Amino acid sequence: MLKELTALKVRGNLGEILEQVYYKGDEYVIKRGKKPMAVLISPDEFESYKKQREIDMSIFNRIRAKNKGYSSKEIEADIDNAIKEVRKGA
Hints:
Strand order of the largest sheet: 1-2-3
Number of helices: 4
Distance between the termini: 35 Å
Number of strands: 3
Radius of gyration: 21 Å
Shape: elongated
Structural class: alpha+beta
Helix content: 55-70%
């Protein structure tokens, strides 16, 4: 469950918050005023995030390598055409 806390509240209750994150899987957005400053998640969730990011970046790098030498306008035109084709079939 995603919860929001102020940085001040985190300072006063860090031990309890860490237990909730680790044992219950709670997630916290830590704010200073109204500005989100950090997110506190479990180590398992963080590892999952890192693995997914690695997969996503690998795909992105393959796409970038395939499109090397093409202008952004050519790539955007190909994307627009692909979207139109997919929508025709829907």
